[in-house]
Amino acid sequence: MAVPTAGGGGVVNFTGSVKADTCYPVNGTTDVSVPLGEVQARELGTVAAPVGGTGASTPLTIKCASGTKVQMSFKPAAADKVESGKALRVNEGVTGAGFAKNVAIVMLKADGSVMNLDTEFYEASFGNGSTGGTINIPLKAAYVISTGSTSTDVTAGTANAKMPFVLSYE
Length: 170
Known about the structure:
Blueprint: E1 23-25, E2 45-46, E3 58-64, E4 69-74, E5 81-82, E6 87-89, E7 103-107, E8 121-125, E9 133-139, E10 141-145, E11 165-169
Parallel strand pairs: 2-10
Antiparallel strand pairs: 1-3, 3-9, 4-8, 4-11, 5-6, 6-7, 7-10
């Protein structure tokens, strides 16, 4: 048998980080997708009276240490807030060909009313057990017609938005 000859090589890179957060999303990522699907302009509600929630309820599962009280608040950029902080502008304000116009996206509370993104948040508390636990924070959203517009003013097209969230706990 011949003695093996050393040849090409390289480096194995290990990447990552260790965190010590009291609460964290269980899905392994900090990004959450809320699919709103395709909606007809004539079926859209308004900020004052949203129609249902066109996006399926998308739970964000949070795991926290025992005795933790957690708040999930939203931090959209000032330029992305419309309707007195109750809605998100779509497409970062781009209104060219292929992009929807005169629509916005609202976050809905459990009772179906619109959440004020400037002042309201989801809140949950975890028991005093030794291991803590998990909770599903329901995220639901709906397209709405912009104030001062009607369904005939809506231009069909892509209507996406993004919004950072923050988990605060005590």
